[in-house]
Structures are given as C-alpha cells and as structure tokens.
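Tokens as discussed.
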C-alpha cells in the first residue's frame, strides 16, 4: 500500500509545483503588461470566465494523459 500512495504523493506535489510556477508566470506577465500600459486594466467577468473555462479544458486534457 505504501507504493500506491508514494506515486500519488509525487503526482500531487509535482502538479502543485507546476501550478504554482504557472501562476507566478501569469502574474509576472500581467504585471509586466500593466506596467507597459501605464497601469492595470480592469478585468471583466467575461474574461475571468473565459480563462476559467480554458483552465478547466487544460486540466481535462492533463487528466486524459493517464
């Protein structure tokens, strides 16, 4: 049973690290674009929904790798 949970823990840790790095990169890019534009733009609800749907699609594709 230890072998079974070992690979699961590795997958969860790796997924968390990848998610954190992607989040940091997205934040960095948003800040850089805001600085070039002279300040942060207002983010609409529609943009957030589109981003969430794209993220869900990416997670679905990743889950089908196994």
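Sequence:
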């Amino acid at each position: 049973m230890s072998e079974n949970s070992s690979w699961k823990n590795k997958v969860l840790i790796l997924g968390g690290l990848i998610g954190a790095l992607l989040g940091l990169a997205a934040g960095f890019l948003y800040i850089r674009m805001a600085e070039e534009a002279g300040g942060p733009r207002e983010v609409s609800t529609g943009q957030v929904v589109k981003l969430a749907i794209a993220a869900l699609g990416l997670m679905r594709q990743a889950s089908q790798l196994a």
